[in-house]
Write a structure and sequence with these properties.
Elements: H1 6-18, E1 22-26, H2 29-39, E2 48-52, H3 72-77, E3 92-93, H4 95-98, E4 105-109, H5 133-146, E5 152-156, H6 161-172, E6 176-177
Parallel strand pairs: 1-5, 1-6, 2-3, 2-4, 4-5
């Protein structure tokens, strides 16, 4: 999917879902939060939290403001009921903060730094080639974010016309609507 091949992704999705790895997309951030809270209710060991690309500035108006230099140790390790825990669903971390680390269910905010044009991902840096370093970093940032979950992921796509093609591409790739 991240490579832009929606058809191949849609063919692989059923086996991924059958293996117990959940892939969801929603345009309602509160629904994503509520799903995680309900799914992991009563478990102090399960972790879920907000993640977004470091360039996804547009998500702050939806309640996913990236925190510069968050306390990553607290975010990943504090009990679900403790302040600073990822399970508070207050602190959004970036691909740089979570690289190499996992939680059970990340809620990944999709920013306007990687939009779908109907046939592929639009370039982040329009004045550069698709394989430029800046454009490759954008694709890789979403690859990192979408692979942080042990049980799966939820992708929050803002409910605007600008993002509708992203939402449609994710659904077309076999990501289930939450």
């Amino acid at each position: 999917m991240i490579d832009g091949n929606i058809k191949d992704a849609s063919e692989l999705a059923p086996s991924i879902l059958d293996a117990g790895f959940n892939m969801y997309v929603t345009q309602d951030l509160n629904a994503a939060k509520e799903y995680c809270i309900q799914r992991y209710a009563g478990s102090e060991t399960k972790r879920y939290g907000l993640m977004a690309s470091s360039k996804a500035y547009c998500l702050s108006k939806y309640g996913m403001k990236l925190v510069f230099q968050p306390d990553v140790a607290a975010w990943f390790n504090k009990k679900a009921s403790e302040a600073g825990s990822c399970c508070e669903l207050k602190i959004t971390i970036s691909e740089f903060d979570c690289q190499g680390l996992k939680i059970d269910m990340p809620i990944v905010g999709w920013g306007n730094d990687m939009l779908w044009d109907g046939g592929g991902w639009k370039k982040f840096k329009l004045d550069q080639s698709v394989d430029s370093e800046a454009n490759t970093y954008r694709i890789n940032s979403y690859r990192v974010l979408l692979t942080r979950g042990r049980d799966g992921f939820i992708t929050f796509v803002p409910p605007t016309d600008e993002f509708q093609s992203v939402y449609d591409a994710l659904v077309g790739a076999g990501v289930e609507v939450l």
